[in-house]
Specification:
Helices cover 53% and strands 6% of the residues. The protein has helices at 11-30, 34-60, 65-78, 82-96, and strands at 113-114, 132-134, 139-142.
C-alpha cells in the first residue's frame, strides 16, 4: 500500500503517517471498479444509440437538399405572373383572416377599401369629421 515510516520521531509524525495511510486507503476505495467502468460504457453506448435514433427520426421529417433544389427549380420554371402571385396572396390572406378581425390600434389603408356585402348607407359628418359613404360596388370612401 504505502511506505511505513521506520522510526517516527514524535507523535505528530505518527499522526501524519496514519493520515497518509488513511488517505491512500480511501483513494483506493473510491476508485471505480472494472464493473463500474463497464456499466458506464454500456450506459454511454445506450445514450449515443438513442441520440442517433432521435436524430434519424428528426431528419426523416425534413426536406433533403435534393428536394429543396427541386422546389427551387420548379418555382423558377413556373414563373408566375404578377396576377397569379396576387391571387395566391389573396387566398392566403383571406384564409388567415376569415371571420372577425379586431384591430387594437389605428388602421391606415393606403389603397382602396371595399366591403362587398355592406349595405350602402351614407353617414353624415359632424364638426371635424368627414362624411363616409359606401358605393354600390362595396367601395368605401369619404368626401374629405
Amino acid at each position: 500500500m504505502g511506505r511505513r515510516a521506520e522510526f517516527p520521531i514524535d507523535d505528530s509524525d505518527k499522526i501524519a503517517y496514519e493520515l497518509r495511510q488513511i488517505k491512500i486507503r480511501l483513494e483506493e476505495l473510491e476508485r471505480p471498479t472494472g464493473t463500474q467502468r463497464y456499466q458506464a460504457v454500456a450506459k454511454l453506448t445506450e445514450l449515443v444509440e438513442n441520440l442517433q435514433a432521435q436524430l434519424e427520426a428528426w431528419t426523416s421529417t425534413r426536406y433533403t437538399n435534393a428536394q429543396i433544389d427541386q422546389m427551387i427549380a420548379d418555382a423558377v420554371a413556373t414563373r408566375l405572373t404578377q396576377a397569379q402571385v396576387d391571387q395566391r396572396a389573396q387566398i392566403v390572406v383571406a384564409s388567415n383572416l376569415a371571420g372577425n378581425v379586431a384591430i387594437g390600434g389605428a388602421l391606415r389603408v393606403e389603397g382602396a377599401v371595399t366591403m362587398p356585402v355592406v349595405r350602402t348607407t351614407n353617414v353624415t359628418s359632424e364638426a371635424n369629421r368627414a362624411t363616409v359613404w359606401v358605393a354600390g360596388n362595396g367601395k368605401v370612401g369619404t368626401t374629405a
